[in-house]
Design a protein that fits this description.
With about 150 residues, the chain is of the alpha+beta class. The protein is about 30% helix and about 20% strand. Strand 5 (about 115) and strand 6 form a beta hairpin.
């Protein structure tokens, strides 16, 4: 079954693409949730025209996203937090704290895009990944410093 995707679907494709999926997945998941529309021989020409428009928009977005990724890779963000005697934090660093620290540096991302890998509960230097797209996930250095 060929489906024109209306929204990004993880591990399937991005909005505006025509992808081939199994019949049941398309009819039972993508179409009812309005994530995609079945491409038939009658409406194929219409969706192929849309694909060309979407490709141009994707190129523009990709260049902006790659510029943001380069900016993120060069960042080194530090935060001061209170610690125990052993050097551990009183609480873990939240994604919202990372978003706030990045916004001070002029980078705006949502907290759902932040990926720690492992929660940050101690002082030190950590690599934090930001999911800009399914393929573009730059990381930057996040430093937690003891507050005196």
């Amino acid at each position: 079954m060929r489906v024109f995707l209306l929204k990004d679907v993880e591990k399937i494709g991005m909005a505006g693409e025509i992808v081939k999926v199994k019949e049941g997945f398309g009819q039972n998941y993508l179409v009812p949730r309005k994530l995609g529309v079945e491409v038939t021989s009658k409406n194929e020409r219409q969706y192929l025209g849309r694909v060309k428009n979407v490709e141009h928009r994707k190129e523009v977005i990709a260049t902006k996203t790659s510029m943001l990724a380069e900016k993120i890779k060069s960042l080194r963000v530090s935060v001061k937090r209170k610690i125990h005697d052993e050097g551990k934090l009183f609480g873990a660093i939240s994604p919202q704290e990372v978003v706030d620290a990045l916004s001070e540096k002029g980078v705006s991302v949502s907290k759902s895009q932040i990926d720690f890998g492992k929660s940050i509960k101690a002082t030190g230097s950590f690599d934090v990944k930001i999911k800009l797209s399914s393929k573009l996930q730059p990381s930057f250095t996040f430093v937690v410093v003891a507050e005196k």
